[in-house]
Design brief:
mainly alpha; single chain; rod-shaped
Length: 110
């Protein structure tokens, strides 16, 4: 009689435990940061663009930004590298040369 009571009690507890597990709400999703764009992929695209746009008036500025992007990518700063790569890409796709100086000269003749 004692064994049958233990079996009955164990069965009831098992059913209660399984029922509670089924009725429990799912755990909230773990928020993960959005995946970053791969700096090596964007860097290779900009490198190919530099090779094809050698006649661009902004080639020197684009190369310097590209080189800074390479260093940032090697250090593991994908976001910073991608920003420099995007700057270089924008320079190569513009038609007008970008001036490196922000100094404005006064108008002559006054």
């Amino acid at each position: 009689m004692n064994n049958s009571t233990r079996i009955f009690t164990g069965t009831i507890f098992s059913l209660l435990l399984c029922g509670a597990a089924v009725a429990a709400p799912a755990s909230p999703a773990i928020s993960r940061p959005a995946p970053q764009a791969d700096c090596q992929k964007l860097g290779s695209e900009v490198s190919a663009l530099i090779d094809t746009r050698t006649d661009s008036p902004n080639i020197a500025a684009a190369r310097s930004r590209f080189q800074v992007g390479i260093m940032e990518c090697m250090e593991g700063s994908d976001d910073a590298a991608n920003k420099h790569y995007q700057d270089a890409k924008n320079l190569l796709t513009q038609d007008q040369p970008k001036t490196t100086s922000s100094i404005q000269l006064p108008a002559a003749g006054r």
